[in-house]
Design a protein that fits this description.
The complex is a heterodimer of chains A (about 160) and B (about 250). Chain A has about 160 residues and is α+β, with helices and mostly antiparallel strands. Helices cover about 20% and strands about 15% of the residues of chain A. Chain A has three helices and four strands, in the order H-E-E-E-E-H-H. Chain B has helices at about 10-30, 35-55, 80-95, 115-120, 155-160, 160-165, 175-180, 190-195, 220-230; strands spanning about 1-5, 65-70, 110, 140-145, 210, 215-220, 245. Chain B starts with a strand and ends with a strand. Chain B is built from nine helices and seven strands, in the order βααβαβαβααααββαβ. With about 250 residues, chain B is of the alpha+beta class. Chain B is about 40% helix and about 10% strand. The relative contact order of chain B is 0.10. The longest helix of chain B has 20 residues, at about 10-30. Classes of the chains: A alpha+beta (about 160), B alpha+beta (about 250). The interface of A and B includes residues 16, 77, 107 and 113 of A.
């Protein structure tokens, strides 16, 4: 899994972040978002989530994996969310797994949760009309070769249709 | 000095009030108080008598009327009424049975049920317990002028703060300090638990509830952290600064 190698300055979670993540995990176990499954890991700081393509969409029957890494000061900072191999073919998802989605970067809010991120990503997949890579996929992936985090990318959110 | 009179129907009360006023006037004179104060008080007696005699009590049968004569510019008096009052006072001094009334010190009574007729009531044995303005039993008044430092036994004072009732006062303490010291510290956690609010940021029980100007409530520390990192409301993304928040007390 190449995506696990992305160099994130991993700092241990703050007490606030750990408390909040514990609560989110408890809530997830009680009331998981439809079409998602949390794969149990030994770390609270990295969640692996199984995504099932919604019925009656282009991704019906397909399965993907999201990797969610939480920063030290979560939820004040957004988590890093990427698709593990192989990422879905989508105009906003690069072949290295990076997702062009504003709530993961500029529009993150501390009131959002892993659950709400998952629903946004599934919504983004479901509203897609074409299975294709972003037009600048090659160039972008080349620039990120050294294992850069998508949070370091200066994203340009130009397309709100998908 | 303030005079509190009451419009009442019935001859007995009226008499009692006059007696009371005269007694006070007599006291004031013996203390060397100004004659003008006495005149003004007499005028009050005249007015109240007049109203109840004519029977046109303007819907204020039991509401106390407060006449404040601190303003020296307004003096309503007449030689006739003063002469009458002097006469009554002399008659009064010759009747020792009514002297019990004069034992009450000149009082400034504050509060909804306050009135000088407190003392005059004692002179009329058939007097029923007075009713307040809305039919409730009249509250005992807090007398701010009596020299004693014991707090008045007054349930109305305690009802406001429920825990004050359960506490037993072993040593009577002055009223104001008691209010300051008897409030037990309510920790923010206790406060929030009774309302079961959760903060959207920490997802924990709300601590030190703080509202934004856009109306969203978070823990104080959580919203401060969010504004410091993003300068936006976490719920509605309205631009915010730390000054755009209010600590609220639920």
């Amino acid at each position: 899994m190449s995506s696990s190698g992305y160099g994130q300055k991993e700092k241990v979670l703050s007490r606030i972040a750990a408390n909040r993540l514990q609560k989110e995990l408890t809530e997830w176990q009680v009331n998981a978002p439809c079409g998602f499954k949390h794969k149990v890991t030994d770390s609270l700081q990295r969640w692996i989530i199984e995504v099932h393509g919604a019925p009656n969409t282009l991704y019906e029957g397909e399965q993907f994996h999201l990797q969610v890494d939480f920063p030290e000061h979560y939820p004040m900072e957004a988590p890093q969310v990427i698709f593990m191999q192989v990422p879905p073919m989508h105009p906003h998802i690069y072949s290295n797994g990076h997702i062009c989605l504003d709530i993961l970067y500029d529009s993150w809010s501390p009131a959002m949760t892993v659950s709400s991120i998952c629903i946004s990503i599934l919504s983004m997949l479901s509203s897609s009309t074409v299975k294709a890579r972003p037009p600048d996929d090659d160039r972008y992936v080349r620039n990120c070769r050294n294992g850069r985090s998508p949070k370091e990318t200066r994203w340009w959110f130009h397309d709100d249709k998908v | 000095m303030a005079i509190v009179g009451e419009y009442r129907e019935g001859r007995r009360e009226r008499e009692a009030m006059i007696v009371n006023l005269e007694a006070k006037m007599g006291q004031a004179q013996t203390r060397g108080r100004s004659r003008r104060a006495a005149e003004v008080r007499l005028e009050v007696v005249e007015d109240s008598m007049h109203v109840s005699n004519s029977g046109t009590v303007l819907g204020m049968t039991s509401a106390p009327i407060v006449v404040d004569d601190e303003d020296d510019d307004v003096v309503v008096s007449s030689p006739r009424s003063f002469a009458q009052a002097v006469l009554r006072a002399r008659l009064e001094s010759q009747q020792p049975t009514r002297h019990a009334v004069t034992e009450d010190p000149l009082e400034l009574r504050l509060g909804p049920g306050g009135g000088i007729s407190e003392s005059s009531l004692r002179t009329s044995p058939t007097q029923q317990p007075r009713q307040g303005r809305r039919g409730r039993p009249a509250r005992p008044t807090i007398d701010l002028t009596t020299p004693s430092r014991t707090p008045p036994v007054n349930d109305d004072c305690v009802v406001i703060l429920e825990y004050a009732k359960s506490r037993k006062r072993k040593n009577p303490v002055p009223l104001e300090p008691a209010f300051m010291t008897e409030v037990p510290p309510i920790t923010p956690v206790q406060e929030a638990e009774s309302y079961k609010l959760n903060c959207a940021i920490c997802m924990d029980t709300m601590k030190e509830e703080t509202s934004t100007i856009c109306g969203h409530i978070f823990c104080r520390n959580c919203i401060y952290g969010a504004i410091n990192s993003q300068k936006k409301c976490p719920t509605c993304r309205k631009k915010l600064t730390l000054k755009n928040t209010h600590r609220i007390y639920l």
